[in-house]
Specification:
By secondary structure, this protein is an all-alpha fold. About 75% of the residues lie in helices and about 0% in strands. The protein has five helices and no strands.
Length: about 140
């Protein structure tokens, strides 16, 4: 249950953050806004690190798959693409497409067992669920 609530909170926060970042971008620029997002997140992480036990930072260099350290780089591109998509599509349409893309990529990662994730068998019902979600987006986007 905690996982479900955390996922729902994450989705809600992503939508609010996307709207905030898009507004900041309108008043500054894409790179200024993205830089601010990353810098402010870094500051929050530093404060949290000081408050929660201060594990060794050097442990980062002992991570087995070094490519996993690119999460922050990917995060910067996530911020940029969310800002651009929300600016051009609006928050609801952009969020729906983002969620569908997340779902499809996550399912492929599970099917292929990529990045150390346990490989899962193909299930038609999961593919049908994604198809239904895509139909929902088409219906939602449908203009009169």
């Amino acid at each position: 249950m905690l996982g479900i609530l955390t996922a729902l909170l994450s989705g809600a926060l992503m939508s609010v953050q996307g709207v905030f970042n898009t507004e900041v971008t309108k008043q500054t620029s894409l790179w200024v806004s993205t830089g601010w997002v990353q810098l402010s997140a870094f500051i929050v992480c530093i404060v949290a690190w000081f408050c929660t036990g201060r594990q060794e930072i050097g442990a980062l260099w002992q991570v087995d798959q070094k490519y996993t350290l690119l999460g922050g780089v990917i995060g910067a591109f996530i911020t940029i693409t969310v800002i651009q998509s929300m600016g051009s599509l609006g928050p609801a349409r952009a969020a729906m497409l983002i969620v569908i893309a997340q779902l499809a990529v996550a399912y492929v990662i599970e099917l292929l067992g990529m990045f150390g994730v346990e490989k899962q068998p193909f299930e038609w019902r999961k593919l049908m669920g994604m198809a239904i979600a895509i139909v929902g987006i088409v219906i939602f986007k449908w203009d009169k």
